[in-house]
Amino acid sequence: MTRAALARVSAPLALRQAEHGTPVVERTFPDVPARGSCPPRGLAHPVTATATLAIPLDGLTLTAPQPEMLSQKNVESVTGIPARVFLDTIRGPGFPLPITRLGKLRLVQREAFVAYLQALASDPPSRRDAEVDERTRIAAVLASVGLESVPCPNTDRASAPPAGTRRARLPPK
Prior knowledge:
Blueprint: H1 3-19, E1 24-30, E2 48-54, E3 69-70, H2 75-79, H3 83-91, E4 100-102, E5 105-109, H4 110-122, H5 127-145
Antiparallel strand pairs: 1-2, 3-5, 4-5
């Protein structure tokens, strides 16, 4: 097809696509002579033809690359964790990852944070183990000062009365 013929065909198509809101993409292809033979290699200037392709908007899918760093602004779209939970997690005691601070913005590497979350999900520490660890730490601190822990009977009250005391009632008014 010659350029003039191609322009006659593609102009109404481009107008029709523009009316429907479909983006028009133009591509340039090398011309092939009408007799079917290729031009000699020594041609001074290349000959080109233009074709118009119409791509509907619902046929396109755009995906952006994942961010390298997570912040409270993008953590919900990447991991599904709300910003408040993210901030509480990174501010909590014992958070092992490095945190970059830029003003009020807190940044953590995405891959490391996702690996940390997966490690939390795969091996949750039991509550009983945490209580035993805490008692062991308390006993170690007391022993370093020269004291020892004394077991206390489990009561449902805030404080147990000393042994041998009687309960008394106030006189009525």
